[in-house]
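Lay summary. Proteins are chains of building blocks that fold into shapes, and those shapes determine what they do. In this project we predict the shape from the chain. Here is one chain we studied, written as its sequence of building blocks.
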Amino acid sequence: MKQPMLNMMAKERYDNLYTPLEAMKILIKHLPKDIRIWECTDYGDSHITKELIKNGYEVISSDIIYNFDFLKDTQNYKDFDMIITNPPYSLKDKFLED
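And here is the predicted shape, written in a compact code that computers can read:
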């Protein structure tokens, strides 16, 4: 089990570190109800999006594979109340700056 993780981390960029389901269950307990959430690095199939929808939240998903780059493109910030995302690990600092 350790070796595949070590192999992945040995690569120059290891961006796909997925949000654990248990982390989402804890986070959801602290979210206000009746808000719209933007998951800006998901094409609609992440633990984040699935758990939010399962718990009754409205979620907007976008991803670079569908031609929306969070770091370059402009979003109307009136379309949502909160961003919850797990950005590519190698770009985490740039996401925090924006």
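What the prediction tells us: The beta strands are 36-39, 58-61, 82-83.
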